[in-house]
Amino acid sequence: MKWYIINKLHCQTAHVLRIWSLKALVIPVLLIAGLTYCLQPDKKITIVDSNSTKPIEGAVVYFKDDRLALRSDVNGRVRIPEETGTTPVTIQAKNYRSREYTLDYFLENKTVTLHYDSARVNPVEKKFHFTREDTLQGRYGAYRSNNDLLHYDLSIKIDIEKEHLSGKNTITFTMLRESDTIQIDLFKNMHVDSIVFNDQNLTYQRECNAVFIDFPHNLKKDETHSIDFYYSGSPAQRGRFGGISFQQDSLGNPWVFTACQGTGSSMWWPGKDQHLDEVTNMSLHFLVPSGLTAVSNGKFIEKEKQEDGYTWFHWKVHYPINNYCVSVNVAKYTHFSDQLDDLSLDYYVLPYHLKKAKKQFRQVKPMLRCYQKHFGEYPFKKDGYKLIEVPYSGMEHQTAVTYGNLYKNGYLGRDWTGVGISTKFDFIIIHESAHEWFGNSVTCGDYSDAWIHEGFGTYMEGVYVECQFGYKAAIDYLNGYKSKVRNRTPIVGPPGVNHWPTQDMYFKGALFLNTLRHVVNDDKTWWAMLHDLHEEFKYQSIYITDVLNFFNKYLDKDLKPLFDQYLYHTELPELQLKYEQDSVQYRWNTQVNNFNMPVTVQHKDSSFFIYPRTEWQSRSRNPENKTLNVATDLFYIDVEVIE
Ligand SMILES: [Zn+2]
Question: Has residue 520 got a pLDDT over 60?
Fold first, then answer.
């Protein structure tokens, strides 16, 4: 409370000072307005499309002086913190003309309209068509945002012969707003058997893959409730990884596995199939034919043999977990374990791969040591770390990383970045495990911001290379990714539609982080900042604006132009050079106004920074030595020499 009052006083003083120079008659009026404004709790504004007046999600309100970026939510709403002063504000959104305001504008106006500009739409994205189904799954709508998940208790019987699931999810949640409806998701081809609340069957409406559940009365704000959601059906394989697949190992034994990233977890179990809200912890139970092992997330608790030829496997996740990380793998696995200090390492592989696995998985300990050194303690210590063999390449399932890289180095045996380094390690172990920090522990609030998973995950491969083989190898490795960058669509995709963004979020996303490291130009600060970023946001769902705000504050810099150019535009920043007789001129050619980024150049025998802006600048040079060598391996940019 004390802090609150001090903060108010600070705000009032700021307002009084600001209006001091104004005409005497106006002062009292403004003073009242100022006080009224200051004494209000945080103020909300709504950003809408000028034509349709529909809210715009993912718009960014940027307070230039405070270097603070705020993202509008699904209702187009942004909460303006009271401590922001009179700072100029820019409001921008994908495909819209940006607008500038002073903060005073919001004293009178609660709604901001942005004008859609079709010329700004990326030609590839122009061809995207999103359906009602995409929106229901991707949007954090009213019947999702009215509650906060606490716990899932998921039990599923897996009938392998019939490729059929039947089960129950007990979903515990706290209401954030009074309401008599919540949205739970289950794909439309799966059957809702019943939904039970306090011994009463609930009614529900299904639309696409959403189930809108009606309660007999309003559930009040702050109340905690549970429902038992019973379901059954045969999931249809779909998406990048099949979602859930019923296959066999090479000896003809059953092999069932799930990987539903992008498609959605609700293709095989009912839950809140989104990214913003994670349960605090989760219990998982799988009933499978005896003789097979069901391996899931978290800690193995026990197995219980039934009389009917089936065995229960109980697992417990002690941490928040995102929906697509929930996974089960059923096979005739053999298990071996190890220990890294007090962290348990468990491996589940096909018995005939045991020898290869024991050799290949020796890479786990140095990898974990490297990531712990740079990003902090393994975030799921109570649950331990697992690798589980599967017949697809792999997936970052939390504490149950699935592995299918054929026990070979590189990516499925290939030199993945083509510079002779990725053959020195197992790409899947290194990449998928990196997601334990970024992807699983820190999760994006919406897929449009999945750079937080994949840009960081890919960059962490480079971090591993640096731990094992040194800085130069890391730079070479990351630069090997340049050949995979397309620059056709922006890294940040359309929000609210469950759309998995372009692959540039991996490769260009990692090269952007490599660029930022060299902008920071102080490794101690760089590593400390990445470590603290994870520490600050672990077990949370966040947006790119949160990363930007954290970096800006940490570095006392304004990185917004860099984030904008690399993540919201397709073109790389282009450094233009013009050589004169005894000078060189340089400037940035970028889509973002006021782009300014230092770059390292080499001239004669010395290397130094230049600080180009979007206007030409010049510095003297020795006419004997014509060229300025730009460190394009440290800064991912284009260089254009203008004749
Ligand atoms: Zn990944």
Answer: yes
| Ligand 1 centroid to residue 416 C-alpha, Å | 14
Q: How far is the CA of 439 from the centre of ligand 1 (A)?
A: 8
Compute the distance from residue 517 Cα to the ligand 1 centre, in Å: 21
pLDDT of residue 82: 77
Please give the average per-residue pLDDT across 311-326, as a whole number: 98
Going by pLDDT thresholds of 50, 70 and 90, the confidence category of residue 13 is very low
Helix (H) or strand (E) holding 197: strand 191-197
Nearest to 33 by CA among 51, 55, 15, 54: 15
Please report, as a single letter, which amino acid is at residue 240: R
Pairing state between β 111-114 and 77-80: unpaired
Phi-psi region of 495 (alpha: psi -120 to 50; beta: other; left: phi over 0): beta
In angstroms, rounded to a whole number, what is the distance separating the alpha carbons of residues 588 and 597? Answer: 9
* 268 CA → ligand 1 middle, Å: 22
Compute the average pLDDT of residues 112-138. Answer: 96
* Separation of CA 398 and ligand 1 centre (Å): 12
**Helix ranges restricted to H, 491-588:** 504-520, 523-537, 544-555, 560-563
- Residue 528: CB atoms within 10 Å: 13
The arrangement of strands across the sheet holding 617-620 comes to: 617-620, 583-589, 574-579, 638-641
Which is more confident, 281 or 604?
Answer: 281
* Cα–Cα distance, 410 to 250 (Å, whole number): 23
Phi-psi region of 208 (alpha: psi -120 to 50; beta: other; left: phi over 0): left
Which residues face 499 on adjacent strands?
Answer: none
User: Which residues have C-beta within 8 Å of that of residue 283, sequence separation ≥ 6?
Assistant: 151, 152, 153, 154, 314, 315, 316, 317
Query: How far away, in angstroms, is 451 Cα from ligand 1 center?
Result: 10
Tens-digit pLDDT profile for residues 29-50 = 444 444 444 434 568 999 999 9
Extract the tokens encoding 248: 């066999």
Q: Encoding tokens for residue 238?
A: 């779909």
Q: How far is the CA of 432 from the centre of ligand 1 (A)?
A: 6
For 195, 360, 384, 386, 447, the CA distances from 70, given in Å and listed in that order, are: 38, 44, 35, 37, 17
The Å distance, Cα 328 to ligand 1 centre, comes to 19
Distance 45 CA to ligand 1 centre (A): 35
Please name each of the domains of the chain with its CATH number: 2-123 (2.60.40.1120), 141-320 (2.60.40.1730), 333-554 (1.10.390.10), 574-641 (2.60.40)
Contacts (Cβ under 8 Å, ≥6 apart) of 108: none
147 C-alpha to center of ligand 1: Å? Answer: 29
Q: Give the burial class of 272: count Cβ atoms within 10 A of its Cβ; 0-12 exposed, 13-18 middle, 19 or more buried.
A: buried
The Cα–Cα gap between 313 and 388 comes to 15
Share of the chain above pLDDT 70, in %: 92
Predicted local distance difference test score (pLDDT) of residue 246: 96
**pLDDT tens per residue, range 424-439:** 999 999 999 999 999 9
For residue 506, the CA-to-ligand 1 centroid distance in Å is 8
543 φ/ψ sector (left φ>0, alpha ψ -120 to 50, else beta): beta
